[in-house]
Design brief:
Low-confidence stretches: 1-29
Helix content: 25-40%
Radius of gyration: 25 Å
Number of strands: 28
Largest sheet: 9 strands, mixed
Oligomer: single chain
């Protein structure tokens, strides 16, 4: 048994690995024209960046239905169609035969560098099996869920018993999880418990399902695992009494990132992407989130809800992340059955049932990539996303009402209502910024992942793209905390636009109010909370003037005053709850049906 590598290699820890290249060249260097291919089971997107007046700028995006799903299971045809779409839009030739044109030609054809990101092949599958109890389990689970891995965690999934390991339950669970990698953590239990685990894993290994294992325990348990599994599995191990828990978790994260990058490399067909560099989606989003936090000095929470769901946060120098590769409204929609339907039902502004929620998920699973055209479907999807977001916030270790003042989300799905998107983000995350102001912005073109992919090779290029082309402001939201009987006044105020035009308003407790303020405009906002109410975490009743450097900025949907308090509460009575939800939609001009 080899020791688990607890040293972070630069490539593995960053999620970056080169595709096979000729003559040992270790990937391209960014120069002028850059192509980023973002592909998953839903879509293939080809984004082109180039120098415009001496600065890297976004040029265009080509989109195609993905072919990285059955019956093709090959991302290449979808990628080619996306690039052809890009060629039609720009009038440039990017492919010659079966190869990308590189370097860029004097006439503008071709590119200088290419990156691949997203989830072009299915995620890894891993199982974390814990015998006994250990705080390290949470660290290991979090590390795995920062990678493109579907993790089955025995502590979460198997029913609690008398402290022993049930052979039957474990084998049934492993048969469903079908992990390629097992992480075995022994932190107590009995010798029989450890033997039951090793026997169950050995049977799965003989069937060819499990291919590698990591044993986290003392030397005696490692040796026992080596004797039982060493002939069928590629094993590594470490003793948690001699290595820091964070180092073990980091090493696991690095190994899983590298394993997924190798899978992508092995699946690349032909010579089309032979010189491309792969960067996994969680790391790409992490790079952009950290950049926004440093550059803007703001507490940032970024969401990518394409194939799988990524949440990354950078709050006051602290990072948090979680990637649920199997949970989304596309091919992973069946996994949302794990969310209790009654939790989803509480966000639906209609008189429906838990059975309707379950049936909607099952129907969606039959046609996971169809565009949602009815408002009823959009509202159901938004209810599911609220609960998914709330769970991801907790999984990432963030407070239930995090101090976030910038939410970056995207890209938007076809037919998606931007106002409903903003409301879904506010309800699911429930941001409570100290200053009371949170900006919600959209990555409409999908540049967050693309710029993050470039950043590992050329940070300056990625920085310029992010600063000039990245986010579209959707809304500036003012969070009013406090509570009072419904209908009582929560806050009154005045919005003074540049040029002297002003609007006075008052907002009742438990409601929302929208003030039009177009993108590109700024205004002074004066807020006068009633006793018992506050702007953010300020003192109750404190008058707030947002002016000068603190003035509010316009956005596509203007300024939203959120006077629903924190945490957002909903009536237990169904009729009252439906009426409350419908009133919130009406406040923002969103149809309820």
């Amino acid at each position: 048994m080899t020791g688990i590598n607890v040293e972070r290699s630069s490539d593995a820890s960053s999620g970056v690995e080169t595709f096979p290249t000729q003559a040992g060249v270790n990937g391209p260097q960014t120069r002028d024209a850059v192509l980023v291919v973002d592909v998953d089971g839903a879509a293939a997107r080809a984004l082109l960046f180039d120098m415009v007046e001496g600065s890297p700028r976004f040029v265009a995006v080509g989109v195609s239905r993905s072919t990285a799903v059955p019956p093709l299971d090959d991302p290449a045809p979808g990628i080619v169609r996306a690039i052809r779409d890009l060629e039609e839009q720009t009038g440039r030739a990017l492919i010659d035969g079966e190869q990308l044109i590189t370097p860029q030609r004097p006439n503008g054809d071709g590119i200088d560098a290419c990156f691949v990101t997203g989830m072009p092949v299915p995620p890894l599958r891993a199982a974390l099996i814990t015998v006994g109890q250990s705080d390290l389990r949470r660290e290991l689970a979090s590390a795995a869920r920062r990678t493109t891995t579907i993790l089955a965690d025995s502590t979460e999934d198997l029913p609690e018993g008398d402290g022993t390991v049930s052979s039957t339950a474990l084998r049934e669970w492993l048969a469903l999880a079908r992990p390629e990698t097992v992480v075995l953590l022994c932190a107590g239990g009995t010798p029989d418990d450890w033997t039951v685990v090793l026997d169950a894993v050995a049977d799965l290994a003989r069937d060819g399902v499990v291919r590698s294992g990591i044993v986290v325990s003392d030397d005696a348990h490692q040796q026992q695992a080596a004797a039982a599994l060493g002939s069928t599995l590629d094993l590594s191990g470490t003793d948690p009494s001699t290595v820091d828990a964070r180092e073990i978790a980091s090493a696991l994260e690095s190994e899983l990132r590298a394993a997924y990058a190798r899978r992508v490399s092995e699946a690349s067909s032909g010579r089309l992407l032979a010189a491309a560099r792969f960067v996994d989606r969680p790391h790409a989003v992490q790079s952009v989130t950290a950049f926004l936090n440093r550059r803007m000095g703001r507490n940032v929470l970024a969401i990518s809800m394409s194939e799988g769901t990524v949440l990354q946060a950078a709050l006051e120098g602290r990072g948090a992340a979680v990637h649920r590769a199997e949970r989304d409204l596309g091919s992973g929609v069946r996994s949302l059955l794990a969310i209790p339907p009654e939790d989803v039902l509480r966000w639906l502004p209609a008189r429906t049932s838990t059975e309707d929620v379950t049936q909607w998920i099952l129907n969606r699973a039959l046609r996971p990539f169809t565009v949602m055209e009815s408002q009823a479907d959009r509202l159901m999807a938004a209810a599911l996303q609220r609960e998914l977001l709330a769970r991801l916030v907790r999984e990432a270790g963030l407070p239930e009402q995090p101090d976030v003042d910038l939410i970056a989300a995207g890209p938007a799905s076809p037919g998606e209502s931007l106002m409903l998107t903003v409301l879904t983000l506010l309800d699911g995350i429930q941001p409570t910024p100290a200053a009371g102001v949170v900006s919600v912005a959209a990555d409409l073109e999908g540049m967050m992942v693309s710029a993050g992919a470039i950043a590992g090779s050329d940070p300056a290029y990625a920085r310029d793209v992010l600063e000039q082309d990245f986010l579209t402001p959707l809304a500036t939201c003012i969070v009013i905390t406090g509570s009072a009987p419904e209908g009582a006044l929560a806050v009154r105020g005045e919005l003074r636009r540049e040029g002297g035009e002003s609007t006075r308003f008052s907002v009742p407790a438990g409601s929302l109010h929208r003030l039009p303020l177009p993108e590109g405009e700024t205004a002074t906002l004066i807020l006068e909370p009633e006793p018992g109410f506050a702007v953010g975490t300020r003192e109750p009743g404190e008058v707030v003037r947002l002016e000068g450097e603190q003035q509010v900025f316009g956005a596509e949907l203007g300024v939203i005053i959120d006077a629903r308090g924190r945490p957002i509460s909903l009536p237990d009575d169904r009729e009252a709850r439906v009426a409350r939800l419908q009133s919130w939609l009406a406040d923002l001009g969103v149809p309820a049906e």
